Amino acid sequence: MLEHYLMILILGGFPIAEVRGSIIYAAALNINLWHAFAIGAIGNIIAIPIIFLVLGRLNLLSLAKRLFGKRTYLKIEKHQHHIDRWGVLALLIFVAIPLPFTGGWTGAFVATLLKMDKKKSFLVIALGILIAGLITIAAVQSTITGLTILNQ
Fold first, then answer.
1. In total, how many domains does the chain have?
2. Structure confidence at residue 14 (pLDDT)
3. What is the pLDDT of residues 44-89, one digit of tens each?
4. How far apart are CA 12 and CA 27, in angstroms?
5. Cα 75 versus chain centre, distance
6. CA-to-CA distance for 128 and 49, rounded, in angstroms?
7. Which end of the chain is least crowded, N or C, by CB within 10 Å?
8. Residue 17: how many CB atoms within 10 A of its CB?
């Protein structure tokens, strides 16, 4: 049983799966979804500062300027006031939607590209991870309940 909880923690911190994948993994093994949510969210949230650190060390902004072109960054700088005003809310919604490529990893990437405050971004991403986990629990539990009703 301990190895399953360890796998939930690892899946929580792993890109693409994140907390959503850890909850689905737990459901497949008939493990308490709330335990999986807590452990997977911890794994996912612990990964965020590490991601920020790695992205900073990779000098992501200069790499992105070469990849996307200076014109893209001129547009970002031109609209920085909108990013400063609405970026936190947009980041929260983006991370909270439980779809592939919309979790904490991508949220940290986006926050770095848009030069958002890292402390504020971390809190917003953590909240988004928790919301995504709750939405996933609701979807998984609804699916399990629906399948149980159909099998009766």
1. 1
2. 93
3. 999 999 999 999 888 877 777 777 777 777 777 787 888 888 989 9
4. 14
5. 26
6. 15
7. C
8. 21
